[in-house]
Amino acid sequence: MTTKTAASRRVLNRDRLEAEIATEAVRVFAECGYEGTSIATIAESLGMSKQNLMYYFPTKQALYERVLDDVLDEWLARMASLADPEQDPREVLRAYIQAKLKFSREHPYASRVYAMEVIGGAQLYGAQIRERVVPLVRKDIECFERWIAEGRMAPVNATHLLFAIWAMTQSYADFEAQMALVLDRKALTRKDFDEAEQLITAMVLATVTQSAATEA
Amino acid sequence: MTTKTAASRRVLNRDRLEAEIATEAVRVFAECGYEGTSIATIAESLGMSKQNLMYYFPTKQALYERVLDDVLDEWLARMASLADPEQDPREVLRAYIQAKLKFSREHPYASRVYAMEVIGGAQLYGAQIRERVVPLVRKDIECFERWIAEGRMAPVNATHLLFAIWAMTQSYADFEAQMALVLDRKALTRKDFDEAEQLITAMVLATVTQSAATEA
DNA sequence: GTCTATAATGGGATAGAC
DNA sequence: GTCTATCCCATTATAGAC
Questions:
Q1: Span B154-177, pLDDT tens digits
Q2: Which residue among A120, A141, A202 sits closest to B32, beta carbon to beta carbon?
Q3: Cβ of residue B48 near strand D, that is under 7 Å?
Q4: Does B216 fall in a domain?
Q5: DSSP secondary structure of B87-118
Q6: B195 and B96 in a common domain
Q7: Chain B contacts in chain A segment 72-111 (CB below 8 A)
Q8: Engineered SS bond to B109: which of A56, B30, B63, B68, CB 3.0-4.6 Å?
């Protein structure tokens, strides 16, 4: 038991507390938006004073950026390295859709905070998106295009195909409120996500299947 | 020239000014969110004092609700009565996708304000969505289901098919910032929208075509 | 690291003259 | 209808005791 272990314990404890704060913050930011969120609200739901919270995150913007960083970390951990041009296109697309829908189901607040930032023009986080998201997206598109060049996928517009997959899967987190109103229930269920996965997969596979390429 | 015409001219002028204010407000709300928007900002871009703006809209919330009402009016004017079960499914779907993409292209701010409201849980406008949007959506879904029952459309999940069409078409307004980063340009072009329309139409038509029903 | 106290700002809303 | 002036409150952020 040296001072070194005590110090590292302190650091670990700080990391844990910061993570707890960020977890609560993502929920409030998703429900109220950046400007609509007060750090006092977040602190209160954690049973802590807002001054204490500001000891860990000196500014509201710092907390917001931490939240977005966490969102991106979790998203990239799940989505990076899924699109492998060596694998079978149909299996990769299945897995891609499944992973994106799972993220929407398990991290709806993360998805919403990110969506709001993008809708508002990504004024604060655009640079990070350019650095961390865009390269991954381009890699996915190139994977699609290679499959097309190799004749393993119907010649569709790879960029817009990816946009379509994104939009369809993300909407189950972002627009849940509206979907729930249409379905006349409080929230989406596991069954809704399973049905969504089935339809989206069918749509995408029908699109990339050679015989469907001449449609429309 | 009676006082009556003068009064009606006054009313007309008031209507015109309110519409001008709402038009500017939808842009600012879309870029900054509800709480992030100050009425002083809107007033300033119109060259008017905020007190003067508040003569027309006594509260910020009243202005916001007016903006959402306008958004819904414009959207319903374009989208209502498109899904006609008597028509050919493929032609209706084509027109539906085209109309939704056109709305995204011509009214991006309207789309974004609406999206932000829904993402935040539709806390302020949920009742209006239930009354004005949900019935229309249900009618569209029923149209799809009738086509399926009549064997004119492959037996897919009609509700999720509509969710998918919505998500894909709306994303070109809501997530333009991210798409522009991927495409490495300042904003989406007419060509992007045309390519999107082609792919989305191909996807939907491939999905509702009988032979594709057994996919996935 | 947590507390009390307080500065400093911004913004929604109102009152009243003209 | 438009202006000047002002109130009031919420919120971010800081200072300093313990």
A1: 999 999 999 999 999 999 999 999
A2: A120
A3: yes
A4: no
A5: S-HHHHHHHHHHHHHHHHHH-HHHHHHHHHHH
A6: yes
A7: 94
A8: B30
- For residue A157, is it within any domain? yes
CA atoms within 13 A of residue A179's CA, in its CB half-sphere: 23
Whether residue A198 is predicted with pLDDT greater than 60 in this model: the reply is: yes
> d(Cα A40, Cα A53) in Å, to the nearest integer?
9
- Residue B91 with chain A: CB contacts under 8 Å: none
| CATH code, domain carrying B159 | 1.10.357.10
Q: Which domain holds residue B2?
A: 1-58
CA dist., res. A140 & res. A97, Å (int) = 13
Does the beta carbon of B205 lie under 8 angstroms from any beta carbon of chain A? yes
Q: What is the pTM of this model?
A: 0.96
pLDDT at B2: 52
Q: How many domains does chain B have?
A: 2
* B contacts of A98 (beta carbons < 8 Å): none
- In this predicted model, what pLDDT tens digit does every residue of A18-60 receive, in sequence order? 999 999 999 999 999 999 999 999 999 999 999 999 999 999 9
Mean pLDDT of A106-113: 98
Place B216 in a pLDDT band, splitting at 50, 70 and 90: very low
State the nearest Cα–Cα gap between A126 and chain B, in angstroms. 8
- A84 shares a domain with A44: no
- A63, part of any domain: no
Closest chain A C-alpha to B49 CA, distance in angstroms: 23
**B79 neighbors B100 (Cβ within 8 angstroms):** yes
User: Quick one: B52 and B71 in the same domain?
Assistant: no
